[in-house]
Amino acid sequence: MTSQYPRQRVYMSFQFRYGWHCQFLEQDLKMPLPRKLHFKSAEKVIELVARGGGLGNLESKQMLDRALEMGRGGVFLSLTPEQYAELLHT
Fold first, then answer.
1. Are strands 8-16 and 72-79 parallel, antiparallel or unpaired?
2. Which residues partner with 25 through β-bridges?
3. Which of 13, 40, 44, 67 could form a disulfide with 74 if both were Cys (CB 3.0 to 4.6 A apart)?
4. Residues 66-88, buried b or exposed e (16+ Cβ, 10 A)?
5. Dist. CA 70–CA 18, nearest whole Å
6. What is the pTM of this model?
7. Which strands make up the sheet holding 37-39, listed edge to edge?
8. Domain definitions of the chain by residue range
């Protein structure tokens, strides 16, 4: 079911340190959100980015793949109000 409310833009940075560590910032790139996520596989990071609307075209997919190869990167996500609310809780 698609939400009728506007989506919230957030920035997700990720880095590989014995697993993938993901942190989130508000759109202004200044205010961190409290929730941090940790994944064992790059596939889970790709899945998260896809669910967050961060894979809009082939170029964005290629950029994500390159960042994962380098072991770090970031991407803007377009979250539903429900997804955004999940990031506000630790």
1. antiparallel
2. 11, 32
3. 13
4. ebbeeeebbbbbebbeebbeebe
5. 14
6. 0.90
7. 37-39, 20-26, 8-16, 72-79
8. 7-13+41-80
**Reduced 3-state DSSP string for the chain:** CCCCCCCEEEEEEEEECCCEEEEEEECCCCCECCCCEEECCHHHHHHHHHHCCCCCCHHHHHHHHHHHHHCEEEEEEEECHHHHHHHCCC
Among 89, 60, 76, 80, CA closest to 26: 76
Angstrom distance (rounded) from CA 80 to CA 90 = 18
